[in-house]
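lol ok so funny story. i was supposed to be doing the assay writeup but got distracted and ended up predicting the structure for this chain instead. priorities right. anyway since i did it might as well share w the group, maybe its usefull for someone
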Amino acid sequence: MLLQAPLVSNPVAIFLIVLVIILLAPVLLNKLKIPHIVSMIVAGVIVGPYGFNLLANDSSFQIFGQVGLLYLMFLAGIEIDMYHLKLNLKRGLGFGLLTFLVPMVMGAVISVYVLNLNWLTAILMASMYASHTLISYPVVARFGISKSPAVLISVVATIIAVVGALLVLAVIINVHEVGSVDPIMLGGLLLRMVIYCAAVLYIYPRITRRLFKTYGDPIMQFIFVLALAFLSAYAAKMIGLEAVLGAFFAGLVLNRYVPNSSPLMSRIEFMGNALFIPYFLIGVGMMINIRVIANTETLWVAAVMLGIALVSKWVSAWIAQKAYGMNRDDRGVMFGLTTAHTAVALAVVTIGYNMIGPDGARMMDETMLNGTVLVILITCGIAPIATTGAAARVKVRMLEDDVEENATSKRQSSHTLIPVSNPLTASGLVELALLTRPERRNERDTLYALNVRNDNSSSARAMGRNVLDIAVKAASAANYKLKTIERYDLNTITGIVNAIEERDINEVFIGMHRKATVIDSFFGSKIEQLLKMTSRMVVISRCYIPLNTVTRIVVYVPPKAQFETGFTRWLHALANLARELGCRIIFCCPADIERIIRLVLKRDRYAVRSEFRRVEENTDFILLTNRVLDDDLFVVISARTTSLSYNADMADFPVFLQKNFERNNIIVIYPEQFGSESAIESFADPMAADINTTVRSAPWLIRMRSLWHRLRGDRKSKRDLKL
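and the output, tada:
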């Protein structure tokens, strides 16, 4: 059918109409209980060439639509919780085989015996049923359930189904051209896949870590990450795979360097959800020709195709639900995520339509082409609706679990104070404080940035406001509201202590000073005064590299640290940091503390990759510290002189850190004292152990120095040693 020229052709007017659709379509159609994604598709049908012909489905929509689809898959990969993905990988592979094989078998058999197709055409059409697109993934992202097992299983299943469909498509094309299956062709494709995956896995992490260390500009990092994603997509297309697979794989590889609470993640999500993904959805709607339903034969073929597409995916989700012991809401999410057909379905039907058989007939005629368009229309409408209903119930269930968990753990509200004075370190301190906060935040949690001055001149006020503005921007980039406090006081420490008391602060994040002279102490006189004047948890940070490039978190926990009031608070903070960064956390601690840490992490459901190294004596600790790498974050749990876990050896600890960790990334934590927080509930009574503080007869610094010099003589390269 010859289409008329669109009513609007001016580029500025076209972009304006698209923005108006993105802005108003969800508002208008949500009143009719139509999900956000469906509203975009419906709007595309209305303004497209098969609707009112307001806009043409030209190259701009094809480009932005393709970019939006790749962006959608990239977001799905970069938002995945890798720890939970590994836990659900086997189930995801099983569901992937189900959601591929069930539609393949059902589609091929019904196509042969109901639609009277030959087996080659039936298998090609079945590959269309087997594949699907995560078009309703933004729904689960909006509900905040992207880390639930049902979503993770569905994402893994999507990759399996798409790869399987593409392999079937390659075989069908080879059979059509050659007359038989060519093992060399399939072997070459698999070999290219292996080389491609190995190259991305090896190259991407190294160049990403190097660039993030060298350049801190947020715009440059954003462009760099997107360039890697589209490079991976283009490379996948060049070797014979689908570009969406490359984008998703790039998201998985870069997942480690883009924490969920980071400003970079906020920028990636904002750009995709605001422009690229809506463009893709509108473009999908513009491809749909609703006039094809006027043909009776087309309706019959489309009805059969739609029945196969929906029933096969539902049966796959039902089998997986029963096999994995999941509930009906999880099944609804799995069905909703795997039932939409767009990109691969169009590719399959287009290739089949262009294939000419020996008798001169097309492998797939125009009726099948129109039926596929109708299948795309209906499945793209059903998938978000089914996902929305099931995702809402899954979210309610997760909230109920959170209420029970909070009632069990009795987590108090967190009031965090970040004293800032240096514009170069303000944003880093804010980022550290945000990454240590719980994933599901309490509404009463508050984050403060404090600048204290003892000079009331206009220049001092301007400098203070400037550093506070930097802190606010860093928090705003991560979609977090930061409250600022500008204070004039006698001195810095007095101002911090007064702010702690006035705002009921639980924890303080402060930067470690840079030594100006040789006689300066390791922490500086101000921090030492602060530790004496407050019993709240104090986190002292000195990081030379961005946090998202840290490879491991190595934590030293001294004996009797479990008896401190703030034991669980610092443990939760480090567990949150490890979860956000996606790296291993290695606890170097005595055996009795290891048992308690394991129980706390299990009780409070912290899914992090935790490892333990037995450290009973200070000499054992010295051997381990020799293996801390330049890309590690070394965390030391210290203690105030009046605390239960303090011993005389800790007085020499700053000297040891200054001498041997001058170039390492260090965080020193002084746990809270004398608070109301109960550290270890429901465990065996820790007070049954001997908690009398004993002073060791010989200073450990002497033993440390002798052992250190012995190690320096024959130790291996730091990079060759592993904890």
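The first helix runs from residue 11 to 30. The first strand starts at residue 415 and ends at 419.
back to the writeup now i swear
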